[in-house]
From TrEMBL:
SUPFAM superfamilies reported in the protein's UniProt record: ISP domain (SSF50022), Metallo-hydrolase/oxidoreductase (SSF56281)
Keyword Metal-binding listed: yes
EC number from the UniProt entry: 1.14.18.2
Location of the protein in the cell: Cytoplasm
Function: Sialic acids are components of carbohydrate chains of glycoconjugates and are involved in cell-cell recognition and cell-pathogen interactions. Catalyzes the conversion of CMP-N-acetylneuraminic acid (CMP-Neu5Ac) into its hydroxylated derivative CMP-N-glycolylneuraminic acid (CMP-Neu5Gc), a sialic acid abundantly expressed at the surface of many cells.
Gene responsible for this protein: CMAH
Enzyme class: oxidoreductase
Protein's UniProt name: Cytidine monophosphate-N-acetylneuraminic acid hydroxylase
Rieske domain segment(s): 12-110
Any one Gene Ontology cellular component term annotated for this protein: cytoplasm
Length: 575
């Protein structure tokens, strides 16, 4: 719709409305199967969908809540105060999106959702005839697709060489041998967000050596996608930052629109590409792409599926974090993710669906435990689940495989609709070039900065996180997470940003973070984000109590200053 609409999500009769109790009411629309929460107090009523904004879990009664105001998410145990619509655990995180509560003239009750116009409906185009071969999508690796769209070529998220997240992630699939030529021939590249399995500086360094002026498009996120470009040393001269929700015209037949994520709008994006009226939707890693409002019946949809892109719970120990608990949690989480993706595909009804952006492996020998513990979803299992519940055609991609959109839309059984790579083509990588990348990390260990213990105060002052009641013990370790000989072991009290010798006597939450010395010093020296540590599995964590400190981790993973610490000035003062 190109106009704002109001959708009635639930109607209660006057009798049902009168039966609502004070406090929390769990409600369901029996026709749609959708669930809602309504909080009733003497002064007002508030309501929301029963879907956790974090990662889509279902809320249930919180048995620890004595005031009758909070509910608990079944996915990660996050707690929502329904009287304020704010999360209370973790504190300072999300606010739940509210619905409008209205009483009709007969004292019945309506739950309404105000829907703004869909931006992709502006200047609508009807699908035109596509010739065979006119639109072809070739899978390269992970989240990287090479799209032929008429006489234009567009590439998504090229990670084709080197690691991601410091040294924690490596490519599962062997990219086609001509990947660099393919990149050089592209007319434009879309990079969804700043995580290094999508924004791969090793890959872009190879590309920039051949074609530094290639047009690259990113969304106008709060944290710029290329915030670290100057420091990376990669020479790219044609980066274009575009506003959200506006068509970008490439030629008379081709346009694209970048949309933000509803959970991480400060960094995550997704994209709609339209050629001759046929839409391709790529939701990439978005948790709630465009706040959950997406185009239906697109020609092709692709999304992540695998899970495992977090240090939780594999890198945690102590308390409930036994190996048995971790295994059960991971199994349950992966199943929930599969069901969520299958339900999303069923709701959106694309003609074709492709699971991608989950083909990574923890291949360095020192991460053997993570590799064995961090079980990921099987794309074929998801595709079978989708086919069981809908008529959507599915595609499990292999490196170098090409989907001909016109053929597949006309006849999904066409033997030429998907051309697989030649027989004997290597699909899975069995060796990785670890050494050059580990050498870069190891170079930071002996840096002059770390001869002076005052670097600790310098770094955390630069980081700018304080006035928060949390004490963290930071321990530098070897490969096996044992204390590094001569390494630093120190406390940071973030309430007043002090560095005490002992934990303070006041009541305080506590975390212990053990980090591999090469990675933590590389991160500190270069002012990098802590996703390299956490998502890259380069830490081991304990916490008491068992509470996720969203404000702390969000700051160090997303909100650090855009310019690195001034170590030159620091060393001059030390000298």
């Amino acid at each position: 719709s190109i106009e704002q609409t109001t959708e009635v999500l639930l109607c209660l009769s006057p009798g049902e409305a009168a039966d609502l109790k004070e406090g929390i009411n769990f409600l369901r629309n029996k026709k749609t199967g959708k669930d809602f929460i309504l909080y009733k107090s003497k002064n007002r009523m508030r309501a929301c969908k029963n879907v956790c904004k974090h990662q889509g879990g279902l809320f249930i009664k919180d048995i620890e809540d004595l005031d009758g105001r909070s509910v608990r998410c079944t996915k990660h145990n996050w707690r929502l105060d329904v009287s304020t619509m704010k999360n209370v655990n973790p504190p300072g995180s999300f606010c739940q999106d509210e619905l409008v509560v209205e009483m009709d003239e007969d004292n019945g009750l309506l739950l309404l959702e105000l829907n703004p116009p869909n931006p992709w409906d502006s200047e609508p185009r009807s699908p035109e005839h596509l010739a065979f071969g006119e639109v072809q999508i070739t899978y390269l690796t992970h989240a990287c697709m090479d799209l032929k769209l008429g006489d234009k070529r567009m590439v998504f998220d090229p990670w084709l060489t080197g690691p991601a997240f410091a040294r924690g992630w490596w490519l599962l699939h062997e990219p086609p041998s001509d990947w660099l030529e393919r990149l050089c021939q592209a007319d434009l590249i879309y990079i969804s967000h700043m995580h290094s399995d999508h924004l791969s500086y090793p890959t872009l360094k190879e590309l920039a050596g051949r074609r530094p002026d290639i047009p690259i498009y990113v969304g106008n996120t709060e944290r710029p996608v290329f915030w670290n470009l100057n420091q990376s040393g990669v020479q790219l001269t044609n980066i274009n930052i575009v506003p959200f929700g506006i068509w970008q015209q490439v030629d008379k037949n081709l346009r694209f629109m970048i949309l933000m994520d509803g959970v991480h709008p400060e960094m995550d994006t997704c994209i709609i590409v339209e050629y001759k009226g046929h839409k391709i939707l790529n939701t990439v890693d978005c948790t709630r792409p465009n706040g959950g409002r997406l185009p239906e019946k697109v020609a092709l949809m692709m999304s992540d599926f695998a899970g495992g892109a977090s240090g939780f719970p594999m890198t945690f120990s102590g308390g409930k974090f036994t190996e048995e608990w971790k295994a059960q949690f991971i199994k349950a989480e992966r199943k929930k993710l599969l069901n969520y993706k299958a339900r999303l595909v069923k709701d959106l009804q694309p003609r074709i669906y492709c699971p991608f952006a989950g083909y990574f492996v923890e291949s360095h020998p020192s991460d053997k435990y993570i590799k064995e513990t961090n079980i990921k979803n099987d794309p074929n299992e998801l595709n079978n689940l989708i086919k069981k519940n809908s008529d959507v055609v599915t595609w499990t991609p292999r490196p170098g495989a090409t989907l001909d959109l016109s053929r597949m839309l006309k006849d999904p059984t066409d033997s030429k609709g998907i051309i697989e790579p030649p027989e004997g083509t290597k699909i899975y990588k069995d060796s990785w070039d670890f050494e050059p990348y580990l050498n870069i990390l190891n170079a930071a260990v002996g840096d002059e900065i770390f001869l002076h213990s005052s670097w600790i105060k310098e770094y955390f002052t630069w980081a700018g996180f304080k006035d928060y009641n949390l004490v963290v013990r930071m321990i530098e370790t070897d490969e096996d997470f044992s204390p590094f000989p001569g390494g630093y072991d120190y406390l940071v009290d973030f309430l007043d940003l002090s560095f005490p010798k002992e934990r303070p006597s006041r009541e305080h939450p506590y975390e212990e973070i053990r980090s591999r010395v090469d990675v933590i010093r590389h991160v500190v020296k270069n002012g990098l984000l802590w996703d390299n540590l956490y998502i890259g599995f380069q830490t081991r964590l304990q916490r008491s109590p068992d509470i996720y400190h969203h404000l702390f981790w969000n700051h160090f993973q997303i909100k650090l200053p855009l310019t690195p610490p001034n170590w030159r000035s620091f060393l001059m003062h030390c000298g």
